Amino acid sequence: MIANASELFEQLEFTENPLYERIISDLLEKKYSVVDDFFNADEVDLLRSTLLEKYEEDNFKKAAIGNRTNEVIAKSVRGDFILWINEAEAGPAENVYFNKINSLVAYLNRTCFMGILHKEFHYAVYPEGTFYKKHLDTFQNDGRRKLSMVCYLNNEDWKPENGGELAIYTQENGEEKTINLYPFPGRVVIFESQELEHEVKPVKVPRLSITGWLKTR
Ligand code: OGA
Ligand code: MN
């Protein structure tokens, strides 16, 4: 769906988007990209309060491992609670979210022929003391997952002592390397689902996010 005039212009005129170009070159170069302020403070506030409202209504479920035919809850692997987001029933906050995601997806498909046809997103809350052990997102036996995207919805004053880093395991010039990323509000991390193992370090303060996947057919 086309949200506003600038998006319409972009889609019709094929203008180059410097941010999206940077994401594309990061992905080609190192298989991940970090964008601070992908969402501004107002957008994060709206998304965070919507998440908290739904969390307080008790709509979240303990996250499982495996896909729907192979669902196991394993607290020793992951401790987060999730709520899948249905785009067809999006409220104001989710519309803000999907407008940006859809604009990025349209750009990736148009300029890189990425063939992204599906997407799935969920809210996630990691309560105090929880984590997600090192994994590859395709162990959910869904080979269609192409790009993983995580967007953090924590408070403005999120501190490194709160833990909850996303650790990405990668290689640079043949050497193992770990990239530790703090879940700062508005930050989005995008990475190749089939390629990069990653983990969420134990959190000391509840950690809020939207996580999702851009999928091929
Ligand atoms: C996941 C995941 C990372 C994060 O949900 O599969 O790896 O930083 N999340 O929340
Ligand atoms: Mn993951």
TrEMBL record:
It holds the Pfam family 2OG-FeII_Oxy_3. GO terms for molecular function: ferrous iron binding; L-ascorbic acid binding; peptidyl-proline dioxygenase activity. Residues 112-216 form the Fe2OG dioxygenase domain. SMART domains: P4Hc. Its cofactor is L-ascorbate. InterPro entries: HIF_prolyl_hydroxylases (IPR051559), Oxoglu/Fe-dep_dioxygenase_dom (IPR005123), Pro_4_hyd_alph (IPR006620), Pro_4_hyd_alph_FE2OG_OXY (IPR044862). This is SM-20-related protein. The keyword Oxidoreductase applies. The keyword Transcription does not apply. Gene3D superfamilies: q2cbj1_9rhob like domain. GO terms for biological process: cellular response to hypoxia. Keywords: Dioxygenase, Iron, Metal-binding, Oxidoreductase, Vitamin C.
